[in-house]
Design a protein that fits this description.
The complex is a heterodimer of chains A (148) and B (407). Chain A has 148 residues and is of the alpha+beta class. Chain A has one helix and nine strands; from the N terminus they run H-E-E-E-E-E-E-E-E-E. With 407 residues, chain B is mostly helical. Chain B contains 15 helices and no strands. Chain B starts with a helix and ends in a 9-residue tail after the last helix. The chains are: A alpha+beta (148), B mainly alpha (407). The complex binds copper (II) ion (CU).
């Protein structure tokens, strides 16, 4: 009887141990980005004050390459927003760190278009880029997602 | 009751067997993994980036002058130390020591040089922004070459005047310049520097910078050499049979490197470094001066007169993006260091910025346990890999050695 229990326990312990190992392995895998990530490069800002679109100067964006973006700001009905002040930050939500550089607007290209330089992403994975836009309608923010 | 137990047991055993099979059998690479693995191969290495801050970067005459200077022990206080004393060409341009020995002993480990032309930041903490600006550091370091810029300028006049003039124009008159003078010197060396007028200082700085530019032209030619891993990647990319290029164990190790091991967070791209800075919780060496890594280097590189934006740089107005958009060093840059390229890493112990870890096996134990950092915060989390997996990772790193017969 006691023999039987021991054997049965043994029989159970093998798959349980294997599953545990498998489970840990899965938990430790590089986290994939969320499945429903909005990867669009044009969208309304958080409060709907503006529409922002971005055009990375590198396609596809590669890990570690410094490059610039053109940012376009319009009113919700599509008129260009000039003389907006734009600041850029971002990072990797799953890694808890920011951008490796401090990008900045280097030129006002006119017609609501702004040149942002100093963009760089030094790891593969999910990145967010946040733009803070301050224009005639007031301050607003918008977040773009990228997967490298 | 009994039947259901049996069914459940069968199901569990079945799924466990499937899991086991998945873990034990070599699997074909997923599309995502293939992309990542391919990005690590030398075939993905772009052409050398231009260095607009160095007008002679690709001049072969500059490279030959630079090579002569790199191995010339006259460029030292005791006539015994050259760049090549610590950066040995037949040892991947490093010296196999925990800390380097020049005129004295350094507080950090000698770094290999291959591929540094790709790196926007040089040194463990990136306190220089080009190969030429970097070369000026060891020349004036009291524990490396132990010289000063006036001494170097006189030396160029005595031994390399023609080669110098052909590349950079005539040497300035150095008759009124004392034998030794530098803003980084001590005592008389510093006093003599301060006594020079601005145009003399500028002339000496210019010769000094040119020496760096010639050395950089030589260093640019030191490039990473192909490994068995690269052969594997080439076959994988071409859709050809990869069997036999890496052992099963090495292939398992590669899978861990790009997957569960999370190594490609920081060791990515064909040089297996992101050329940024990370605190990985490596211990401080007792007895050495405190080392805060990148957190103090940002100000140093911004203040360096030999940086890309400085008066001795050949860069134009639109250049120097790395320096311009560098930003400030936050808290996470405390004890952050540049991940070394892992090419050839298995055959050049010891490891880390001050040679803290003796073997590759111990490096992997470090990543597996992720100890707390002595200062700042480590970016690592424990990996919980088992001994078989650690051995596989170690085997894979061996496949990054240059193929026999190549330096
Ligand atoms: Cu990251």
């Amino acid at each position: 009887m006691s023999n039987l229990i021991t054997r049965r326990r043994l029989l159970w312990s093998v798959p349980v141990a294997l599953l545990a190992v498998g489970g840990i392995a899965v938990a430790k895998m590089m986290q994939p980005p969320p499945a429903d990530l909005d990867l669009s490069l044009a969208k309304p800002t958080e409060q709907g004050l503006y529409t922002a679109s971005v055009e990375p100067g590198l396609s596809p964006i590669t890990v570690g390459t410094m490059h610039g973006w053109v940012v376009q700001i319009t009113t919700p009905d599509g008129r260009p927003v000039d003389q907006a002040s734009i600041t850029v930050d971002g990072g990797m939500p799953q890694h808890g760190h920011g951008l490796p550089t401090e990008p900045d607007v280097s030129a006002d290209l006119g017609a609501g278009r702004y040149q942002v330089d100093g963009m760089k992403f030094n790891m593969p994975g999910w990145w967010v880029v946040n733009l803070s836009v301050d224009g005639p309608a007031g301050p607003d923010t918008v977040t773009f997602n990228l997967v490298l | 009751m009994r039947t259901s137990t049996v069914i459940v047991a069968a199901l569990v055993i079945g799924s466990a067997a499937a899991a086991w099979w998945t873990l034990a059998k070599p699997q074909p690479w997923t599309e995502e993994e293939t992309r990542l693995v391919q990005s690590l191969g030398l075939a993905s290495l772009p052409p050398l980036p231009a260095d607009p801050s160095n007008a002679v970067a690709v001049d072969p005459d500059a490279a030959s002058l630079g090579k002569a200077l790199f191995f010339d022990t006259r460029l030292s206080a005791n006539n015994k130390v050259a760049c090549g004393t610590c950066h040995l060409p037949d040892r991947q341009f490093q010296d196999d020591l925990p800390r380097a020995k020049g005129v004295g002993e350094t507080a950090r480990r000698t770094m290999p040089i291959a591929g540094t032309a790709y790196s926007p930041w040089v040194f463990w903490d990136g306190r220089k922004d080009s190969q030429w600006a970097q070369a000026l550091g060891p020349l004036e370091s009291a524990v490396e070459h132990g010289t000063d810029r006036a001494y170097i300028a006189h030396l160029i006049e005595a031994h390399y005047a023609d080669q110098y003039a052909a590349l950079f124009g005539p040497l300035p008159t150095l008759d009124a310049v004392p034998d030794h003078a530098s803003p980084n010197g001590l005592g008389a060396v510093l006093e003599d520097w301060l006594a020079l007028d601005e145009s003399q200082k500028d002339a000496i700085n210019r010769v000094f910078a040119d020496v760096g530019k010639a050395i950089a032209a030589y260093e640019r030619t030191i490039t990473p050499q192909p490994s068995r891993f690269d052969a594997y990647v080439d076959h994988l990319a071409a859709g050809e049979d990869t069997s036999g290029i890496l052992s099963d164990q090495e292939e398992d190790g590669l899978r861990l490197f790009v997957g569960k091991g999370e190594c490609t967070k920081c060791h990515n791209g064909p040089l297996l470094t992101d050329n940024f800075f990370h605190n990985t919780g490596v211990t401080a060496v007792p007895g050495l001066p405190g080392d805060l890594g990148r957190s103090v280097a940002v100000e140093q590189v911004l203040a360096d007169p030999f940086n890309c934006l400085g008066p001795y740089s050949d860069a134009g107005p639109g250049d120097c993006a790395e320096l311009r958009y560098l930003g400030q060093a936050g808290h996470e840059m405390i004890r952050a260091y540049k991940p070394p390229s892992l090419r050839g890493v298995a055959s050049r112990p010891p490891y880390m910025h001050a040679g803290q870890i003796a073997t590759l096996g111990e490096v992997l134990v470090h990543y597996n346990t992720a100890p707390a950092a002595p200062d700042g915060h480590s970016e690592l989390a424990p990996l919980n890999l088992n001994p078989t997996e650690l051995a596989a990772l170690e085997a894979f790193l061996g496949a990054l050695d240059p193929i026999e017969g190549q330096p």
